[in-house]
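sorry to bug you again but im stuck and you know this stuff better than me. below you get a single protein, a line of residues and a line of whole numbers that encode the local backbone shape. mainly i need to know what kind of three dimensional shape the backbone takes. anything you notice is useful, everything is just below:

***
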Amino acid sequence: MRRALIDTDPGIDDALALLLAWGSPEWTVETITTVAGNVALEAGTLNLFRLLDLRRPEPRPLAATGAARPLARPLKIAPYHGVDGLGDLGDWPPVQPGPASPDAPRVIVEAARRHGHDLTVIALGPLTNLALAVEADAEALRGVARVVVMGGAVDVPGNVTPGAEFNAHVDPEALARVLAAGVRPDLVPLDATRQVLLERPALESALARAAAPFADRVRRFTEYALSRDLDRGKRGMDLHDPLAVGVALDPTLVEWEPVRLAIGPDGETRRAPGEPNCRFARLVDVPRFLALFMERLCPAG
């Protein structure tokens, strides 16, 4: 049985990525860990429980909270997602979070030891939790099937600085530590994610199949990001984190290039000479990915 562990900082596109993951029968999403990134840890963890309550995946995954700040610098959050991280709707139903482990790095290590090559680890936020897990047991992380990381900007401009993507910029020390540990992740950088846009008509078509309360909630929190992007002249919102989940499900959705990356002080992901320490997604089969995403985004109602 294929198993997935998702490390996330929800986040509007994280929310869409989780809905894609929960709608995919190829695996069981056994564990979800939260990390500070798009929003503070407490807010991101609350968003996870809001999404669990909205989608109610079966089986319900184990939840674990992780790092509240990067390894060596202050946290920088992303205003793109709203103050609460999910579009500031203000009327989410109250949720009962239930028990959550307070030690995501330990949970990640234990899952890697227990499931080994049956486990895919998907990191959608800064790599602080993964870096701490690697520090505890790098061999266990090297033994999983794949580690898929959304982050970086290899041959394209960054989205925070001219050379750095947000996740890498928030905790560059963590990304450098994971690469140095020999995990050899599959990196899904802005080079790939900017190729895939969610446009409003396609979203409406997908949501038309879902039950009205669910569809309305997804439409409203996604509209926050869509409106910001449309106001900036884009045709839609980039599906950064959903693409990472998509290629975790099916690596043939993209063309890969092995590369050695060095991490700059602000999170720049620079090509460097020497043996590859990861591979990165360069070219996306956009029609195949969008078909997968739209089909699985939400359950038929």
Notes: The first helix runs from residue 12 to 22. The mean pLDDT is 95. The chain has eleven helices and twelve strands.
